[in-house]
Design goal:
The protein is α+β, with helices and mostly antiparallel strands. The chain has six helices and eight strands; from the N terminus they run E-H-E-E-H-H-H-H-H-E-E-E-E-E. Belongs to the enoyl-CoA hydratase/isomerase family.
Length: 150
């Protein structure tokens, strides 16, 4: 994890790659729990036997499950000392180029795009690429926007 001593130091890293999160395995239990939380029980996600005969050979994670992991993975990539609160503000240009089969290992790579003054602190935009181990295309690409309040 890359730790910045201040927002000013973070600003100095604009345009650089901040690093990668550790790999994490996507389990069927995670997929099922996400399906329950979002009421999205499409068979491609929650019916392993039927999905085994489908286009991906197994169940796949919901795209929004992958997206929801971005915040946690970013906490594993970088931090800023002296921040009282850090909240999600939104996302721009979200894409899901490749499906995530159950059992896949994912990690997030992060490139700092901008740090701008906001009313209550700083708006930080990080370009995140969620990689699937061994795959040629990423699972998710997103510009994640956070608000940091010192």
């Amino acid at each position: 994890m890359r730790m910045f001593s201040s927002v000013a130091e973070l600003e100095g890293a604009i345009g650089t790659h901040l690093g990668f999160s550790p790999w994490r395995v996507i389990t069927q239990q995670q997929i099922d729990t996400f399906a329950d939380a979002t009421d999205d029980h499409q068979w491609i996600h929650v019916e392993p036997i039927k999905a085994a005969e489908g286009p991906y050979g197994s169940t796949i994670a919901h795209g929004y499950l992958t997206l929801s992991l971005v915040s946690a993975m970013l906490w594993e990539v970088y931090g800023v000392e002296g921040i009282r609160t850090a909240i999600n503000y939104g996302a721009d240009t979200v894409r899901f180029p490749a499906p995530v089969p159950v059992g896949s290992r994912l990690r997030a790579g992060a490139e700092l795009r901008s740090v701008t003054r906001a009313r209550s602190g700083f708006r930080v935009v990080v370009h995140v690429t969620v990689e699937i181990e061994g795959a040629s295309k990423p699972a998710c690409v997103v510009d994640s926007i956070g608000l940091l309040s010192p």
